Amino acid sequence: VAYVLTQAGAKKLLAAATPTINQPVDNFMAWEASQGRLNAYVALDQGDTDFTWAGGIVDQFDFQGDSDIIKSDGGHQGDDGNAFA
């Protein structure tokens, strides 16, 4: 996963994160975008459609085995997603 932020967007995120973020940063950014407080866009590959896409032009090589860090959507590698709820 990759992100490109403008300085104004970074300032919005830092202001909204004060005093702390109580969730993974990608979830926090998605929430801010879903609430209309942050503009978000995705760059799609030519073969991507509204119904099938691989996540844009940057792909994570091995989501299930790439890290020992617990993931919030954990079920794929046995992590407890409730730990982030």
Structural commentary:
The protein has 85 residues and is mostly helical. It contains two helices and no strands. It starts with 6 loop residues before the first helix and ends in a 51-residue tail after the last helix. The chain is extended, with a radius of gyration of 15 Å. Helices cover 24% and strands 0% of the residues.
Structural class: mainly alpha
Count of individual helical segments: 2
H/E series:
HH
The main sheet comes to:
none
| Subunit arrangement of the protein | single chain
Strand tally is: 0
Task: State the main characteristics.
85 residues
Quick summary:
This protein is mostly helical and 85 residues long.
SSE diagram, text form:
Layout (H helix, E strand, L loop, with lengths): L6 H10 L8 H10 L51
